[in-house]
Amino acid sequence: MTDLQPARGTHDLIGEDQRRHHHVAETARRIAASYGFDEWITPIFEDTRVFSRTLGETSDVVTKEMYTFEDRGGDSVTLRPEGTAGVCRALVTNGLTQSLPKKVFYAGPMFRYERPQKGRYRQFHQIGMELIGPAEPLADAEVIACGWDILKALNVHADTILELNTLGELESRAAYREALVAYFTAHKDSLSQDSLTRLERNPMRILDSKDERDRKIVADAPTIEAHLTEAAATFYAKVKELLARFGVPFRENPRIVRGLDYYGHTAFEFVTTKLGSQGTVMAGGRYDGLVAEMGGPQTPAVGWAAGIERLGMLLDAAPAAPVPVAVVPIGDEAEAAAIGVLQSLRAAGIRAEMSYRGNLRRRMERANRIEARTAVILGADDLAKGVAQVKDLKTGAQEAVSLPDIAAFLA
Ligand code: ATP
Ligand code: MG
After folding, report:
1. pLDDT < 50 regions, the chain
2. Ligand 1 atom 8 nearest Cα
3. Inside any domain, residue 201
4. How many domains does the chain have?
5. Could you give the 3-state DSSP secondary structure of residue 381?
6. 258 lines ligand 1 (CB under 6 A)
7. Mutation probe of ligand 1 site: the residue of 24, 80, 143, 280 with most atoms within 8 A of C-beta
C-alpha cells in the first residue's frame, strides 16, 4: 500500500498546521459569539440543487469546481463548495424564516475541484457568518466589523485592507450590465476566452478576472456609480459612515463584484499583500435574494466567508504546543502510585503524560522529547514518605511535594 498518497489538493493537518488551523477557527468562534452569533453545523453534502439553483448555473463554482456525484440511491449530491447555501437551506427546512434575525457562524471543510497551488486546495476550510433578517446597513457594517475584529485578534490585520463596493439594486445592476456589455464588446478582440463566455452570461464577472490581458481592459471599464439609484447610493453612504463608527478602515474598489444575481448592495473583500495572487482572505456581501431562491420568503441577509488556510499562513508564528508535565515512576510499584498522581493532574486540567515503559534515564529522555517543563519523579523512598520530587526541567530545581498537593502546586 506504499503507493497511497493523499488525494490531490487535500492535506493532513498535523502538528503546527493543526495548531494554526485550530487557532484561527477558535478565535473566530469566540469573537463571533461575542457579537451574538450561534454556530450552525450543517451537512458537508447537500442535494445538488441547493448549489446549482443558488450559485447560478454560470458561476465558475457550479460549472467547473463542484464535486457532484450520484449516490447509491441515484440521488445527485454535492460536497459543499461554500457555506451560505447550506445555511439558507437549513433556515428554510427547519422552519426558521419566521424567527428572524438569525445570526449564524460556521466553520468547516469546503470542496472545490480547482488546480491546487499555494493557498488553493480541493478540500479547504472556511469560517463564515450570516446575518439573516435585517435589511439595514447597520447589519452590513456589523458583520464586516466582526470580520475585522477577527483579523485583529489573529494579528493579521496590519497587511490586510477592506475593499468595499456596492452592487446597488436590481435596476442599478441592469443598467450597469448594459454599460459593461457595450464596453467589453468594443474590446472583444483582447478579452480572454473565459471572459468572452462571461460577456454573454455574466459580464460583471469579467471585472473579477485574474487574466492579465483582461485586467488591462477592466482597468478602464465603467463603474456602477453612475447607475446607482438614489436609495442604493444612500444605503452605501450609510454603510461607509457606520464602518467609520465601528473603526474599520477601508478602501473603495469598484472592481469588487459577486457575480450572482441574488447579491446586491454591499460587496467586500479583505485583501492582503502577503499571499501573492491568493490575496483574498475574507469575502462577502449582501444577498437579499438567496433565501427566496431556496424556497423561503423574501429575506434580507448579509455575510462573509474566510479561508482558514490563508489566515493560518498569515499568522506570525504557529501557536505553541501545550506543555505537558511528565510523570516519572521509578519501578513497577511506583508506576501504580503514579497513576493516581497522573489522574489528579489531569482532573486539575493539567496536561500530564507518563511513558509506557522504561527505566529512569529512558523516561527522563522521553520527558525531554515531549518538551515537558516539569517532571514529577516518584521513587520508592519518597513514596514511603508520601511525597514525590517535582523537578523544573529548565532550571533543574527540585523539591519534595506531598502527593495530594502536587496538582495544586503545579496549577
Ligand atoms: P478566489 O477568487 O481566490 O478563487 P473565491 O471568490 O472563489 O476566491 P469565495 O468563494 O469568496 O472565494 O470564498 C471565500 C474565501 O475562501 C476566499 O477568500 C479564500 O480565502 C477561501 N478560498 C476559496 N477557495 C479556496 C480554495 N480552493 N482553497 C483555499 N481557500 C479558498
Ligand atoms: Mg474561486
Report:
1. none
2. 280
3. no
4. 2
5. helix
6. no
7. 280
Q: Which atom of ligand 1 is nearest to the CA of 60?
A: 7
pLDDT of residue 198: 87
Phi, psi of 378 (to 5 degrees): -115, 105
In tens, the pLDDT along 39-57 reads 999 999 999 999 988 777 6
How crowded is the C-beta side of 241, counted as CA atoms within 13 Å? 9
Q: What is the pLDDT of residue 202?
A: 84
Q: Which domain holds residue 254?
A: 16-169+229-314
At which residue does the C-alpha cell 514525590 appear?
388
CA distances to 83, 130, 225 from 163, in Å: 22, 19, 16
> Which ligand is the nearest neighbour of the Cα of 305?
1
Residues 106 and 240 in one domain: yes
Give the pLDDT score at 61. 79
How far is ligand 1, taken at its centre, from the CA of residue 103, in Å? Answer: 22
Tell me the CA–centroid distance for residue 112 and ligand 1, in Å. Answer: 9
Q: CA-CA distances (angstroms) from residue 37 to 83, 192, 376?
A: 15, 42, 43
Residue 74's contacts (CB-CB under 8 Å, 6 or more residues apart) are: none
Residues 394 and 305 in one domain: no
Cβ neighbors of 176 (< 8 A, separation 6 or more) are: 168, 204, 222, 224, 227
CATH number of residue 93's parent domain: 3.30.930.10
